[in-house]
Task: structure prediction
Amino acid sequence: MKHNRRIAVHFAAAMGALCISLSAPSAHAQEQRSDSVTQATKADPCKGKHYSKVAYTFYRGPSKIPLRCGTKTWGYKHIVNHGRWSTAFKNKINDTLWKGHEVRPGVVYRYKPGTGCTPNPKKNFKVVYNKGPLGGKPGGLTPQGIITATVEYTAIARAAC
Result:
């Protein structure tokens, strides 16, 4: 072992490069491996979890709004099954709940500012959540949390142009 290190040191000195021991894996390589495992775990926080498990927590003022694992009809699994989940989508949910306008109880919009009479429609983000129990049953899972989140497009009225 010592002989291999001496050779590596002499070779590195001759080449004018840094000497790295080849006998043990670098800390950086171990760090990368554990990061990739962590990333894979973070990729689906609901894998093998019960529908009531909280995948992410968002805030609307002081109120916590959970995004539960859910099912194919609501929650995280619903959003993923519709191909909508990404880090950007998660950030839009956060921004909408925090800064958005509640048009009716449990329905929050975050409007993209219009740019006059452009031919493109306005892009809005909508989050629907339930502060009450799942299925409206007293004593049930409360709060149910986020049911769905979507991007909606609103056509601009041409008469105003």
Notes: Strands lie at 54-60, 63-68, 101-104, 107-111, 122-130, 145-154. The first strand starts at residue 54 and ends at 60.
